[in-house]
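Protocol step 4 of 6: structure prediction from sequence.
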Amino acid sequence: MTDYDVLRVFCGPDGGYGNELGVVRDGSALPGQSGRQQLAAELGFSETVFVDDPERGVIDIYTPTLRLPFAGHPCVGTAWLLDVPELVTPAGVVGARLDGEFSWIEARAEWAPPRTLRQYGTAAEVDALDVPPPGEWIYAWAWEDEAAGRIRARAFPGRNDGIDEDEATGAAALLLTDRLGRALNITQGRGSQILTAPQPHGWVEVGGRVHLER
């Protein structure tokens, strides 16, 4: 088995929750897309990252069933792990910085895969949702405190790949921030926390806590 690290990204204030991420630091161990896809499927994380150049931050991202040009929580986690000022993805160059306990990336909404952003009236309605049938990637959200920018969200990838619900989803948070045009404090899944802030010229910052599991 290829060596890999396991991170939890977008952890809650107490260090719990967060979305697991696999990171293969030596991407040369699996240079081909088919081998990377197979390993990502075997590991079963919502995303697995292969690092092709740790100094320049060149990365390659896979779900259990497909390759992604960009994804939020993989970039936040890998930027923290490599401690680099930027990541190079197929979608574009992602800015990165560390600020106290938070790891931040800066990316563009058009890099994120399409998501259905579905608003509900209350956080309780979001909490009560059942997993929808496969077919549509749904980001269900509601205001917890609109004045404060606090949101309750859950994410349902709908890919039928064993990931029925995504615990913390940076790309969807980026899209929602771009749509609403304001900074957000998102509680997603069981208790993960995602912070966002719109930036000039169409950029959006997405940040969260990262812990090394193993």
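Step 5 (inspection) to follow. The chain has four helices and 14 strands.
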